Protein 1
Amino acid sequence: MNARELPLTKLRGVSEARAKLFAKLGAESVYELVLITPRDYEDRTEVKSVSSLTDGESVCVSVVAGEPRLSRTQTGLTLVKLRAADDTGVIDFAFFNQPYVRDNIKAGGEYVFFGKAEVSGTSVRMTNPVYEKRGEADTGDKTRRVVPVYRLTAGLSQYNARSAARQALDLLGDVPDILPQAIRAKYKLCDARFAYENIHFPPDFIKLAIAGRRLLFAEMLTVALASRSLKRGRGDAPGRVLDVSALPEFYAALPFAPTAGQTGAIDDAARDCVSGRVMTRLVQGDVGSGKTVVAMALCFASARSGSQAAFMAPTELLASQHFDTFTKILGPLGVRVLRLTGSLTAKKRAEARAAIASGECDVVVGTHAIISDGVEFRDLALVVTDEQHRFGVGQRANLSAKGGSPHALVMSATPIPRTLSLILFGDLDVSTIRELPPGRLPVKTFVYSEAKRGRLYESVRKLAGEGRQIYFICPAVEESENPDSGLKPAVKYARELAETVFPELAVGLVHGAMKPKDKDAAMRRFVSGETDVLVATTVVEVGVDVPNAALIVIENADRFGLSQLHQLRGRVGRGGHASFCVLFGGSGGEAAKERLQTLCSTNDGFEIAEADLLQRGPGDFFGTRQHGLSADRLAVTDPALVEEVGAAADELLADDPKLKKPEHNGLRDAVAAMMRGVAAN
Ligand code: ADP
Ligand code: MG
């Protein structure tokens, strides 16, 4: 059997039931398991002498064991106590509920333990450490190395995931390499086998960085090649000519004067739409820069030309909000706007579809499902995609394949540095809105430690007393797989805030695992001011507009990228009120706190995106691949990498425009898979 198709049940410890859990994470074969990279790493590389341990640090000690002793606690748990020592001092270990430790550890043997040191006075302890015999520790996977931390699902432990990944790598042997030897040599990239071995089980952070650089390079190169081939595929495809002469009428209907950036972007798009070629334009602008106006202007022009436009938002919530805005502004101009979302009743949806097919409707506002559900248009001339973070090559390929080649306008949710946008969006023309509408107050941003939580809660009460509203953002919905992670789960936190912290306030909850209907209802209660405090996951990240919200508190902010935090922060500062953003740094340590400080010093999304690129490398901007290189700590922070990828793509295509040479087979397949929206190595 082809090694790529080996089922997961070939692995020791993976039953049919457990294989289903891995499938939930996106791996249905041994090969796909190897492609799922860790989400983080635990640093167990440091070995210290017992006398130099400080309280609370997690490190290894290398010691000689005494006699392990088994007893029971008052509550009936087994307890193995073990005293051990190195040349500098004595350390006591306690193992709860692991009676077998007594037989595993031999008095007089040398072991390496990893755990959290508890130091008080002259006493040094560790509770439930992991350990290996000194010889084994050289090749083992528990101590003296970097240990992978995987994304899990209920029923899977880190132990299960690590064991499966280890076996998968061993079983697979060689990993096919999509990068041609010449590219690897020129850009000093390791081979695929080394990369996957070391992305999963790096002995140290240097090897991890080498592996990460190579995987990221391969992924970015695939994107770059795919977007260039899309551009070539489109060529000078003929596009219909729209009538843009009525735009002044649209401007006159706006309740405000458009900014220069807005008219600039509208002019760019209008020029595309009269050129006779198909438009594929990306509008980049910071959060709050008013990208919706650009979209509305073009939808208006389409309607005036007697054709139809589709406006697609990433969530039902946003679709509803945009529908309201479109109706308010375009309605009076005689444009027939219709809503098409999953939360409509079957009957309403059928009516909407009929109106779209007959041409009774000029502009449809809905979720991305408009396109994927195969809605029939009488005459679709324009497709606008709003707030796309990850407008993958696959989706773009899909768009182009849509009948009648409609013009495509994409509103980007995050500002992206220019070098990167050339790779990610090489096939698109770009308009950038640099300024915000006049009169915006910058959001004052602070990084707080736990000690200030009490004071923060006071401020929340005070603001709510003044009639303002507050967001609390959590990184997770439910209790995490790892109780030590310290992540605030939204559901539990909302209960805590409602019951004990703010019993006098109305606390709402919205998260991605809720039914669209419930999510919509919860959001509407917040929009209407019925709820004072909204606890939410990042579902509110894009586009949601509640001008009365004056404070956003982001828990475990170290878990988010700077650009994402900036997006979240953009939920406040939308009215005339002074607005604030409080970031809790969590357990991220000093480096993480420093990273967060960037947000305190600037409100410019482009500057923040550049900082993100410098500090965290390009990995954050790439989510195109199914499994993604999501680990924050890949440590690929080389900004030159992006330029190297661009150069490599140009060289490859100059040499072999259709990637037909045998040594380019791997890349060609990867590009094709990406266009189909499938993961490839
Ligand atoms: P984004 O670029 O984040 O999608 P929106 O289009 O949602 O921004 O606009 C944010 C807010 O700014 C909206 O409430 C909108 O009405 C307002 N707005 C947009 N353009 C202007 C302008 N030129 N002058 C004043 N307010 C504006
Ligand atoms: Mg928007």
Protein 2
Amino acid sequence: MQSTSASRRAVYTGMFDPVHLGHIDIITRAARIFDEVIVGVGINPEKLPWFSTEERVDMLKQVLRGLRNVEVQPFEGLAVRFVRQVGASIMIRGLRTVSDMEYEFTMSLTNQTMDPEIETVFLLARVEYQHLSSTLIRQIAAFGGDLKKFLPAELVPLLQAKVREQPRAVALAAAAASRE
Ligand code: ADP
């Protein structure tokens, strides 16, 4: 049976504040499974990301430039709507831990209710990236830690510059880390 182009186009959404090796691994693996992968960079007025939408889109484009079938786009509002807008019907999510599972399960059931034709495909995080999150990376950056094991080397100076430019955001990240 021949599948339609829409069924082979998949969407991976997130805040990517910043993008890290765990995200890149999921996108790389998805790009091998699907003909096209659209990475949707979330604009959420309720969240105050370290990096602007444009910066997050640029960072993703920079680190994904070697993947010919991957495109990066900003989006606002419901992810299911974005999936439709780009003519796809598959959402990719990465799964790290059991706690991710609970959240992702709820989200995918909600998305299924909103649009039953959209399927969510889960890819398991590789063991070496399971502990990674953008929150953790921001906290390590705030404390001046070594970031090279967590994100591509070319992004490290951007994080360090952000730490210098935004002392207040950095202080908040550090305070949150010390409460955990
Ligand atoms: P983060 O948690 O790093 O801020 P997002 O919340 O933007 O990232 O999540 C975007 C997608 O990436 C979600 O499907 C999430 O489960 C997945 N993801 C996040 N971190 C990892 C990781 N270390 N390995 C695999 N997938 C991940």
